[in-house]
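Hi support team,

I've been running sequence recovery on a batch of backbones for a student project. Most finish fine, but this one hangs at about 90% for roughly twenty minutes before it completes. I'm not sure whether the input is malformed or the queue is just slow. I've pasted the structure tokens below so you can try to reproduce it. Let me know if you need the job ID as well.

Thanks,
M.K.
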């Protein structure tokens, strides 16, 4: 999992450059989790756009949820990780090819803002995941324009209550922990913003810790009458 920089539409890694301008551009993508996709505008997520995952800072960053969105991109994924929180084996267990995941280690919020913009602008990038602490109106607009130019997906993890009213995102989701079980981890995901989507509605995202299978449910089934089924997301 190399460290990278981006400049003039290319990803630069240790003296090598990676770019892919020949790949066909598909404007939307789906997670493959029908209940979650059903909440999004036209039941799809837009590319060339930013999507935000809002969360309570006390419950921790929803890295897993962000990874699910990024996993559907065919081009490389750039993950801004200034606090060194990302655990590569966990990404590999989800099906990520770690040779196509690049970590950014910006030294300051200013550096992070610049690198996010440059990576979003790069046409060889499938997704940029970042957790900017605060976003100004100018930065929000800059990120949006960069994503539109590059054609990739911006996935921002933002704590609630810290200037989160400033944004230029196609969709915004509130992610909250949901009571799980010993071998199952759950989150509640609510659509807060998305023109044409089912705003205000929620789904429950469920992951098995044993086999890493994932499913999205409108509500938890009655365990006594509804056997659990799961689909591997990679």
């Amino acid at each position: 999992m190399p460290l990278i920089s981006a400049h003039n539409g290319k990803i630069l890694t240790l003296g090598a450059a990676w770019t892919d301008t020949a790949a066909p551009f598909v404007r939307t993508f789906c997670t493959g989790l029908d209940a979650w996709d059903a909440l999004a505008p036209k039941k799809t997520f837009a590319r060339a756009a930013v999507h935000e995952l809002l969360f309570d800072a006390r419950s921790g960053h929803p890295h897993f949820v962000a990874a699910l969105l990024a996993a559907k991109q065919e081009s490389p994924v750039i993950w801004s990780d200034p606090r060194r929180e990302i655990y590569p084996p966990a990404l590999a267990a989800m099906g990520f090819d770690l040779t196509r995941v690049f970590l950014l280690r910006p030294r300051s919020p200013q550096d992070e803002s610049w690198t996010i913009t440059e990576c979003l602008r790069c046409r060889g990038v499938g997704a940029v995941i970042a957790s900017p602490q605060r976003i100004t109106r100018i930065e929000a607009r800059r990120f949006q324009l960069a994503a539109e130019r590059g054609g990739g997906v911006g996935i921002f993890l933002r704590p609630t209550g810290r200037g989160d009213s400033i944004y230029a995102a196609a969709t915004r989701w509130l992610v909250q922990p949901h009571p799980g079980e010993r071998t199952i981890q759950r989150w509640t995901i609510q659509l807060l913003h998305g023109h044409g989507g089912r705003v205000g509605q929620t789904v429950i995202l469920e992951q098995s810790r044993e086999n890493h299978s994932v499913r999205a449910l409108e509500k938890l089934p009655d365990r006594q009458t509804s056997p659990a089924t799961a689909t591997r997301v990679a």
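--
Follow-up from support: It reproduced on our side and the slowdown came from queue contention, not your input. Helices lie at 34-37, 63-70, 88-93, 109-121, 137-150. No action needed from you.
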